[in-house]
Hints:
single chain; 304 residues; mainly alpha
Amino acid sequence: MTRLGYLAISAAAVLWAVGATVASTLLDRGASTVELTAARSWLGAAGMAVIVGASRRNRHGEGPGLTGAIPFGLALAAVNFCYYFAISRLPVAIAIVVQYTAPGFVVLWVAAVERVRPSVRVLGALALAFGGVALLAEVPSLLARGELSLDGLGLLAAIGSAVAFGAYMLLGEKLGRRYRAQGALLRGFIVSSIFWAVVVAARGRPDTLLDTSFTAGIVFVALGATLVPFLLFLWGVGHVGAARAGIVSTLEPLMAALLAYAWLDQSLTGWQLAGGAMVLGGIGVVQSERPRDPEVLAEAAAAE
Length: 304
């Protein structure tokens, strides 16, 4: 099941990369960041309600309460909005690099708070993956050309996205033990939906959501690039742990670069090829070690 966990996280990263490309197109056409993020939560909650209702599985027979789900839902609400806001004010390369410091936050949190010392392989994989993301974003080239002008609010949003992504992984791992991945994600989407309903109502007329030219793209981003990958990712976290899942998630910027090459006719530089090799190397290293956390192993065994 550990191998399937890594496969699920990798599939989630691919879908996120596709979704980011579609979302970027929608934003370039004038879609509202707030309304796009809200729609992801609302459609995600509806889709998860259908899935949970069909399966009627709840791990320990808990009721439909939101115990422990509020922080998780707020993290879910924050991660995409902060990232979209960051790329509207920063070079995309910088936003990506900052967001993918999240696995480092997770490793530090687990070491400092949960007293689980990361292995040498995990630290090595983390260094390879983060370095690879920096090269995929062509940070050395940007530094050489002096193109790294940073906007303060944009940088804060990127940091917020990283923190929210790290919190999503850690909280999702814990909540998944109580409700399974399906139940945890449903509760997270419900909390996120309530939050965005208040925000959208306060903003007034939701022009993006009422514009039918955006409908197909919004539905795909919400279901194919949000509900499905977040469910796969959370299921994978339950089998390999948050720290390892975060490292494997760095496959997303690599897939984004490959999609830009295949779909948008963009070239791949030497830096990006080297970065891609480093990301794959980091993922390979972390997958070569089985999770040592007994709770993670117990979760995997229970799911078999």
